[in-house]
């Protein structure tokens, strides 16, 4: 799709986030296909951190996907409000956040909330603030399978933590959370081999210590886990996709369903244009030249970026005018979405007039 040819872009303020609802629906359909079709849809436990929008969550609910993973309490609240039957907050909650979780549980009685833990003291705090002997809160043990960010290894520590959770009357051991966010290998076979290594360790442990449920993987390994196991799967970026994952993982047939609209605001010199796409509008955690692609300016080279400005060197500068639209595709869509208050919806090659609020931007 040529984003620049979308009818109605002249009336969209820049910089701004665009989402294509048709492409999102196609991505949802492909997620369902990857897990084996509608009869296996219960395996899907998608993450909402990428889009943070209730409309995208409702699209999934309408398709039969009702369980979701969240990174923040705001995301969990958004998902519950959009009709989620279950929400796993995949971030160990500490401090005042536990009070907020207790309120969420009260406010959304039709949603079953769950949390992660990798620490006995954290489990005690969760039990004290949110535990209920009559309706125990589901708790998953966060397993470190190689990312070394959070979690504990399978074995003596995880077994001891499980026993500790079982001793707390307000909590229920719900299973294992095995996130492999360190696996980004472009080579599919290498990625597959690494998944199988993790799978083997988990499967071996499960023979002696079976878990009620296992939730595995992220987006890059989604298809592999789907093919190799019957466990629950939690892709997230697959809803909107981006060129970072698209270029690295062509085995995942997702559509880029989000883009950014910007405009030329100045022509600071020969061969140069300045557009209103600063690092307050697009994820900036990687090197400057890796942050974006410009479909209509393939030869453009970034010179410098500040909060509200991006200077490009491009042979097309001579023919460009102040006010011209420039479409950008972000490398990393998840943090990019969080920089915008709303998304302008496009469908069928035109701006629909809808604006979807990014309601879960806050934590």
Tally of individual helices: 10
* Helical coverage, percent range: 25-40%
Class derived from helix and strand content: alpha/beta
Largest sheet: 9 strands, mixed
Pfam families: Ala_racemase_N, D-ser_dehydrat
Protein name: D-threonine aldolase
GO biological process, one term: D-serine catabolic process
GO molecular function: D-serine ammonia-lyase activity; D-threonine aldolase activity
Short structural description:
This protein is an alpha/beta fold and 363 residues long. Helices cover 29% and strands 24% of the residues.
Folded structure, characterized:
- This protein is of the alpha/beta class and 363 residues long.
- It folds into two domains: 3-17 and 255-357, Lyase, Ornithine Decarboxylase, Chain A, domain 1 (Beta Barrel), CATH 2.40.37; 21-243, Alanine racemase (TIM Barrel), CATH 3.20.20.
- The protein has helices at 21-34, 54-62, 73-81, 97-107, 120-130, 156-166, 188-208, 222-228, 243-248, 333-337, and strands at residues 16-20, 67-70, 86-89, 112-117, 137-144, 171-179, 214-216, 232-233, 258-269, 272-275, 292-293, 301-305, 310-313, 325-330, 342-347, 350-357.
- The strands form two sheets. Strands 1, 9, 10, 11, 12, 13, 14, 15 and 16 form a nine-stranded mixed β-sheet that branches. A seven-stranded parallel β-sheet has the order 2-3-4-5-6-7-8.
- Helix 4 packs across helix 5.
- It is elongated.
- The mean pLDDT is 97.
